[in-house]
Amino acid sequence: MAPDEGSSAARRTGKGLNYFSFGYEGFVALAGLALVWQIASFFIPHFLFPSVPEIAARLFAIFTSWNSVADALATSARILAGLTGAFVLGTVLAMPMARSSAFERYAYPLLNFNQGIPALSWVVIAIIWFRGIEFRIFFIMVMTTLPAFTFQVLDAYRAMSKDLFEMTLAFRPTRLDLFRTLVWPTVIPGILTAWKVNLGNAARVVVVAELVGATGGVGYELLQQQQIFDMAGAVAWTLVLVIFVLVVQGIITFVESHVLRYRAFAERAS
Amino acid sequence: MSAPPEILFERVSKVFPHPGGGMPLEAVRELSFAIARGELVAILGKTGCGKSTTFNLIAGLMRPSAGRILVQGHDPYADFASYRGKIGIIFQNDRLMPWRTAIENVALGLELNKTPRAARLEIAAAWLARLGLSGHEHAYPHALSGGMRQRVSIARAFAGKPGILLCDEPFSALDEHTGNALREEFRELLLQTGATSIFITHSIEEALALGERLMVFERPARIAYEVTLRADMSGTERATVRGRIRQVLASEISAK
């Protein structure tokens, strides 16, 4: 099969559709948005709708200044560190929850309770509780994305086929082998989905955390733009974060398409 | 002195508690039998008569509520890990891991038994070839037909050279033609490997075609009729056995 046939099949079915496979439709949509913005900039005051070339110039300036790049990298690192922490902790919580209903009965209400706490409350709590900026942000990121990771890993584990479990068990595997051959391949699709979903949430939360508690990063830079009423700078820094999220989403989708290549897809599924 | 049985059931019962707290379900009632090494036994019975529970008890996947089970002289539930590589199982559905290719599925038992990678892939490829699946080694299960998938699961069970083979209605999900073709190949393989085999089925013809000894279960699982099938049995004798099995199964239905 020619490569084009593969990608067009994926596009027809909707399976494997990712940020890199939208092709010209995605380009047209984004170009359309830029056009609408540019037209709006002709009629609306400059401080509210700066022109697209001006925003592009600010974006270019961010990527060509080491200090700005360092800010962008700091935010990226905070997102990834927070997500990794929440994922590890979520997995550690999800496994005993899956195996012990008694433990689950205690853990589930606590996680539900946590879900009701707004990100901003965690920011305030972190500032009061902790001294170090980086730990504060890490704590906020972990606390806000922990329930979603835990529930998604738990669901992925619960979705494990009883038939496959019995079949594997019949070969008398060690615990490690059971995890390696059955549990891990079963939960990996759920984990990848959890990362994709939580990445967007984390990007929103990290900005709030940096806005009030950091001396660098995209959130801090956004605060600077707000204080000098610089809309072009605010949009450019927002785009930096969007670009980061899209790149990481693309990487996860690429990993997903490789790891989950065994999945069948129906011709008429679209 | 005669050799100890390979599989021994002594007054084994299995009762499942009712999930809603109602009457418990008795799946197996004081079941006793002995199977010698290398014997090929077919267990026949209506749906829900406890055949699969018996199967899971032999496999060590369930603990009996009462009685004693010995497989190769040990308790299959208590000494679970000691049976690694000794029992091969073919289930009703293929139970292939969708993320593994055909060859990786066949090699699963060998992998868990710590057979080196090159050796296990060589053995798996040989078994796939033996079952007519050369050229499909690297296909994922979704790309194979139902018959091909079941062949892969048969290869997986045989690849580890188990001393005991448990088969739970392995051809019931296949169409008649595929099932018949696979059944004949399967019997050949069983005879060649010399493994002690228990074949669970609800088909009289399948039991007659595969078993050397037949046990017909009533509900809850107990032996209602047992017969040893000689290779030189005449057509009339087989017809008599067939008629007797039908009678036992019919009487069980009318008793319900």
Number of E strands of chain A: 0
Reading the helices and strands of chain B in chain order gives: EEEHEEHHHHEHEHEEH
Structural class of chain A: mainly alpha
**What's the assembly state of these chains?**
heterodimer
Average of the residue pLDDT scores of chain A: 85
Radius of gyration of chain A over alpha carbons?
22 Å
Q: Give the overall pLDDT of chain B as a whole number.
A: 87
Helix/strand-derived category of chain B reads: alpha/beta
Which fold name corresponds to the CATH topology of the largest domain in chain B? Answer: Rossmann fold
- Binned, the helix content of chain A reads over 70%
Main beta-sheet annotation of chain B: 6 strands, mixed
Spatial strand sequence of the major β-sheet of chain B = 5-6-7-3-8-9
**How large is the share of residues in beta strands of chain A?**
under 5%
If you had to describe this structure to a student in words, what would you say it looks like?
- The complex is a heterodimer of chains A (about 270) and B (about 260).
- Chain A is an all-alpha fold.
- Chain A has helices spanning about 5-15, 25-45, 50-65, 65-100, 100-115, 120-130, 135-160, 160-170, 175-215, 220-225, 230-260.
- The longest helix of chain A is centred in the last third of the chain and has 39 residues, at about 175-215.
- Chain B has about 260 residues and is of the alpha/beta class.
- Chain B is globular and about 50 Å long.
- The termini of chain B are far apart.
- At the A-B interface, α8 and α9 of A face α3 of B.
